[in-house]
Design a protein that fits this description.
The protein is of the alpha+beta class and 490 residues long. Helices cover 33% and strands 23% of the residues. The protein has helices spanning 46-61, 104-112, 116-123, 132-142, 144-151, 160-168, 178-181, 196-202, 240-247, 306-316, 325-329, 369-388, 407-417, 429-442, 448-452, 468-484; strands at residues 2-8, 12-18, 24-31, 43-44, 69-76, 82-85, 95-96, 155-158, 175-176, 187-188, 193-194, 211-212, 216-221, 233-239, 256-260, 264-271, 282-288, 294-302, 339-341, 359-361, 397-400, 421-424, 457-461. The longest helix is centred in the C-terminal third of the chain and has 20 residues, at 369-388.
Length: 490
């Protein structure tokens, strides 16, 4: 009665086996390459994503009895767009990743033409390179031969979930869910369906897009010849941030979570009400039940947080692993005035400036590796505060994701917000959410109330009573953010 959950993230794929009591019984992970063909461009090889999925799943299955599995849940990096041949399942080019900023000029062109207000009305989103629609528009304009095969029906278009399901089912299924569809700029939040108007605006043939299915239920069945001899129902799908909201059991209106991943994402459940924000937040679909009820959320999307730590490791090579950042940062009491604005791919919520670029300011002769590492962790907390300052006040914040294991970050976050930060026993809530969805779809769990009982608190970080130092540091951060804006011209 266990569930296999696959979390296809931005830097790697995690596979976990979740038991009926909400425990992770097995785990596998496989990283894949990041490709940066030009400044501001980010790409992934679809075949590498698939092979990483197979390898991570093999590792997890080696630790359990596969005959006990009853279903599969899938969660994934959103907005990243892929093309593949409907027959061979091969991809003609690399995926364009959500972090990619190559379409900034296209967004500006659409904005100048007066389309942004209508796009926001229909989608709840902004005209920003983050979202899939302008990536597809770029492909049509810059790779016409490839795009011609999309228009002819040979190539399918989809997000990572759609691609993985196509591979798992030997090309039989081309499906997605509302949480992924609503991030493409092609989905009407009010009708809950693909929009002909938006498909026309962005030049995307509707027939190339996947069929919309509920977030849990009878979605597809894996082909054992393609997927490790497994013939199991794919019974749950959700984009990574909505999956984490579900995994944190944020089922009630007002429930909120923050996921620290490659970027950081704050979501608040708004129930069946589609709420709009004037403060840079996105309106988004959270999930849709098999009976058709659509639950919405407000989202603050921050592009670079964990990726900044990865840059310290791979780019600057001043840390050996993300795990050691807390110990290094703790060797100094503060950043000694150093501020790092990790706008490595522009700024997301609430600033939305694709031309902003990363900046480190306040360096002196006394600045050390520890100060820069601490400034990086503080930047993550500052970015989250910027988003939460635009939302209604809350009594606490639930956090998850890999960086939530960092005690120093959680404490700095609590001090910045002035409210307790609550970390669950399982911080892999993105994969857990996919398992919960698939478990609902296969009867492992009968209701969300039963799922709520599985949530357990690991540690609560209470804020310091003195708000002065935190507010002063945040004010210095805001000054640095303003200096980083508008730096890139293309």
């Amino acid at each position: 009665m266990s569930i296999l959950a696959i979390d296809a993230g931005t830097t790697g794929v995690t596979a976990v086996v979740v038991t009926p009591d909400g425990r992770i019984a097995a785990k596998g992970y496989q990283e894949f390459a990041q490709h940066f063909p030009k400044p501001g461009w980010v790409e992934h090889a679809p075949e590498e994503i698939w092979q990483s999925t197979l390898e991570a799943t093999r590792d997890a299955l080696a630790q359990v009895d596969a005959s006990e599995l009853t279903g599969i849940g899938i969660t994934n990096q959103r907005e990243t767009i892929l093309l593949w041949d409907r027959e061979t399942l091969g991809s003609p080019r690399r995926a364009i990743v959500w972090q990619d900023r190559r379409t900034a000029d296209i967004c500006g062109r659409l904005r100048d033409a007066g389309h942004e207000d209508r796009v926001a009305e229909l989608t709840g989103l902004r005209l920003d390179p983050y979202f899939s629609g302008t990536k597809l528009m770029w492909l049509a304009e810059n790779e016409p031969r490839t795009w011609g095969l999309v228009e002819s029906g040979r190539y399918a278009v989809g997000t990572v979930d759609s691609y993985l399901i196509a591979r798992m089912t030997r090309g039989l299924e081309h499906v997605t869910d509302v949480s992924n569809a609503c991030r493409t700029l092609l989905f009407d939040l009010t009708t809950g369906d693909w929009s002909d108007e938006l498909c026309s605006l962005f030049g995307v043939p509707r027939d190339a897009l996947p069929e919309l299915v509920p977030n849990w239920g009878d979605i597809a069945t894996t082909d054992p010849r393609s997927f490790l001899d497994l013939e199991l129902p794919i019974a749950g799908i959700a984009g990574d941030q909505q999956s984490a909201l579900f995994g944190q059991t944020c089922f009630d209106v007002g429930d909120s979570k923050c996921t620290y991943g490659t970027g950081s994402f704050i979501l608040t459940n708004t129930g069946t009400t589609l709420e709009r924000s004037d403060a840079g937040l996105l309106s988004t679909a959270a999930w849709r039940s098999p009976d058709g009820e659509l639950t919405y959320a407000l989202e603050g999307a921050i592009f670079v947080t964990g990726a900044a730590v990865q840059w310290l490791r791979d780019g600057l090579q001043i840390v050996g692993s993300a795990a050691e950042t807390a110990a290094i940062a703790a060797t100094v009491p503060d950043s000694e005035g150093v501020v790092f604005v990790p706008a490595l791919t522009g700024l997301g919520a609430p600033h939305w400036d694709p031309h902003a670029r990363g900046m480190i300011i306040g360096i002196t002769r006394g600045t050390s590796r520890a100060h820069l590492v601490r400034a990086t962790l503080e930047a993550i907390a500052f970015e989250v505060r910027d988003v939460l300052d635009t939302m209604p006040a809350r009594a606490s914040l639930r956090v998850d994701g890999g960086a939530a294991a960092n005690d120093l970050l959680c404490q700095v976050q609590a001090d910045q917000l002035g409210v307790p930060v609550e970390r669950p026993t399982l911080v892999e809530t993105t994969a857990l959410g996919a398992a919960f969805l698939a478990g609902l779809g296969t009867g492992v769990w009968s209701s969300t109330d039963e799922l709520r009982d599985t949530w357990q608190l690991d540690r609560r970080f209470d804020p310091t009573s003195d708000r002065g130092p935190a507010d002063a540091a945040h004010a210095r951060w805001k000054d640095a953010v303003e200096r980083s804006k508008g730096w890139a011209t293309t």
